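Ops channel
N.P.: pipeline sanity check, posting one input/output pair.
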């Protein structure tokens, strides 16, 4: 695998630890440096403590704080300004996709219609489009 992804840090945010671990392994095998947290609250804390990421890949439906609420907080506090914000969710309804666009996220991937390798490819494509090569 080429080194184009080396040193690229991806924060994975999902309350499903099985999926978190699976995507973390896929990203690591593709040259990324993944970090995982199981809630939007934990993601916000990582960012407040200086976490710097090329991409934040997040689920929408999580306890305590939804992915959309997390993105609103990140934007309000002007954190992770260079990170690609990518929803990775089973919420494929048009209303959710539109809400994501309004929040300025960079990508929207529906878990149910993507295998992990396709998710990694989509993350690559989104990062390239954003200029985080």
């Amino acid at each position: 695998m080429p080194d184009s992804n080396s040193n690229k840090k991806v924060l994975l945010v999902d309350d499903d630890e099985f999926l978190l671990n699976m995507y973390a392994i896929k990203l690591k095998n593709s040259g990324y440096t993944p970090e995982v947290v199981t809630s939007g609250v934990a993601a916000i804390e990582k960012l407040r403590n200086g976490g710097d990421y090329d991409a934040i890949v997040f689920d929408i439906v999580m306890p305590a704080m939804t992915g959309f609420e997390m993105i609103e907080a990140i934007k309000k506090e002007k954190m992770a300004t260079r990170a690609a914000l990518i929803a990775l969710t089973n919420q494929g309804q048009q209303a959710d996709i539109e809400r994501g666009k309004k929040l300025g996220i960079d990508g929207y991937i529906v878990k149910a219609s993507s295998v992990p390798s396709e998710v990694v490819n989509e993350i690559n494509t989104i990062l390239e489009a954003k200029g985080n090569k």
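N.P.: looks fine end to end. The chain is about 45% helix and 20% strand.
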